[in-house]
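FAQ

Q: What does a record look like?
A: Structure on top, sequence underneath. For example:
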């Protein structure tokens, strides 16, 4: 890149790379910081699969970074089970859409983005941060730059870890994403992969943090039995086909998302993705929120007056205003759901299951909630 970069993006996860591509498309010169790989960690493959909504799909498709059909399976239906027979069913057909979400293989998506970045001349991949009018921090929840900027990140830890793995089922999942809540606030999700008639599922099991080490240490056979039973044999017997990984769970939000670079006149910073917020994965929304951040920031930069710098504080405040409310709403919704199933006082278990059955019959509210989760402002 002959001219100096206008934006330096720290962190080349899915949010950082997406933002780099969106800005480059608008002819903004970007430096993307990818620190050298830690020896021994180069080949660690993420075993997770993400539920991505329509807004995320549209955004990634516009960047030619959407994985092929083998790595992105449409969710035709979602079945959510309570602990005492409550059940809510969401259907793409009833919503009059092709899919409620897509379950996307994480390494495939990361590869698509890495390839797209390689062919974009406006993006220079650098190994250390460079000075630029705007620095965007996309370093994930443990961001050190955010800390160095003195931004407070209010973290509420859940006493849970999410165990993720890939499994093969005896029966086809038929494009249905299934979730079971139990009375300890634990959530088991089996997400369809490998096409509508596939038998591969991505497991996300949010369990008590004290139980997690025991489940990770179990033999494969014992783990298979535990999941088959926890899923009430809905897909027949399940068998592990990958390693198991675990993630501690928390809800967090930064108190400031944008600001001036300390001691550097006319230079600003902004946070995006998990560096700005994290939510419980039970609703599969964390990355969808991060991609919406990238889209909103790219949009304010694209629409700026020609004489304004990309780091103009006014633009950045517009970005923060546009995103904070959305993130808070989703964070409270997922937290509320988690809390609802974590308490068993008096009539609460019966009430929440009764509530689920009642909710299942309310077409309009269901339609609205589904549209929100899909990233469609219905
Ligand atoms: C079990 C589980 C399941 C989930 N399922 C879903 C789902 O179904 N749908 C969904 O939308 N979301 C889901 N999420 C949330 C999703 O994982 C995150 O929201 C998403 O990964 C955030 O992306 P990011 O790019 O902001 O951060 P990250 O993915 O954390 O990427 C940050 C990047 O920055 C790099 N980095 C860190 N520090 C520095 C530094 N100092 N300098 C340079 N680079 C640095 C890191 O190496 C990394 O590459 C799930 C999360 C968990 C834990």
């Amino acid at each position: 890149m002959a001219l100096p970069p206008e934006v330096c993006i720290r962190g080349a996860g899915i949010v950082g790379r997406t933002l780099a591509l969106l800005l480059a498309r608008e002819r903004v010169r970007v430096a993307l910081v990818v620190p050298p790989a830690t020896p021994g960690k180069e080949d660690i493959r993420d075993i997770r699969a993400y539920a991505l909504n329509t807004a995320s799909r549209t955004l990634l498709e516009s960047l030619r970074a959407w994985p092929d059909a083998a790595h992105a399976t449409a969710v035709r239906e979602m079945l959510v089970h309570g602990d005492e027979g409550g059940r809510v069913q969401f259907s793409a057909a009833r919503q009059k859409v092709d899919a409620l979400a897509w379950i996307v293989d994480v390494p495939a998506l990361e590869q698509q983005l890495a390839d797209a970045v390689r062919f974009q001349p406006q993006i220079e991949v650098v190994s250390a941060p460079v000075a630029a009018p705007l620095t965007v921090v996309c370093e994930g929840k443990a961001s050190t730059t955010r800390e160095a900027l003195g931004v407070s990140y209010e973290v509420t830890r859940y006493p849970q870890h999410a165990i993720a793995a890939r499994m093969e089922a005896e029966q086809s999942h038929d494009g249905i994403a299934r979730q079971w809540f139990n009375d300890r606030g634990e959530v088991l999700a089996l997400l369809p992969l490998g096409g509508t008639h596939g038998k591969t599922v991505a497991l996300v099991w949010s369990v008590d943090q004290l139980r997690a080490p025991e489940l990770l240490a179990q033999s494969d056979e014992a783990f298979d039995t535990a999941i088959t039973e926890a899923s009430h044999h809905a897909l027949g017997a399940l068998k592990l086909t990958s390693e198991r990984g675990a993630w501690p769970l928390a809800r967090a939000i930064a108190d400031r998302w944008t600001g001036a670079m300390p001691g550097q006149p006319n230079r600003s910073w902004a946070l995006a993705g998990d560096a700005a917020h994290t939510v419980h994965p039970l609703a599969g929304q964390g990355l969808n929120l991060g991609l919406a951040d990238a889209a909103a920031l790219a949009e304010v930069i694209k629409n700026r007056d020609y004489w304004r710098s990309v780091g103009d504080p006014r633009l950045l405040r517009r970005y923060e205003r546009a995103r904070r409310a959305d993130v808070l709403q989703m964070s409270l919704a997922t937290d509320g759901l988690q809390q609802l199933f974590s308490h068993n006082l008096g009539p609460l278990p019966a009430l929440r299951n009764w509530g689920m059955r009642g909710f299942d019959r309310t077409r309009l509210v269901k339609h609205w909630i589904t549209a929100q989760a899909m990233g469609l402002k219905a």
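Q: Is there anything notable about this one?
A: The chain is about 35% helix and 25% strand.
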